[in-house]
């Protein structure tokens, strides 16, 4: 079983380019007005609409801090903060913003017992 999260966007091309180029997502499926991208087991669709869904958080999980740091380097101009440890959730993380103003989180679990799917 799997799933896809869809977002409406008024800036389809810019948003898809951002996720492809800067977050290294791959195109999973191209539809007439929607592009579905993948990153590991994450599937996100962006659909060209006359409104933009900017709620929620798109979270990318990396196997280690280096993955988070490398991504922060690519997103430095849109990052809201430097990567840091979050003791509450035992993660290393930072937040950024996509072209629609949607929140993007990049994180790695600090607990070695957490296995990525």
Automatic annotation (TrEMBL):
InterPro entries: Glyas_Bleomycin-R_OHBP_Dase (IPR029068). It comes from the Archaea. This is Glyoxalase.
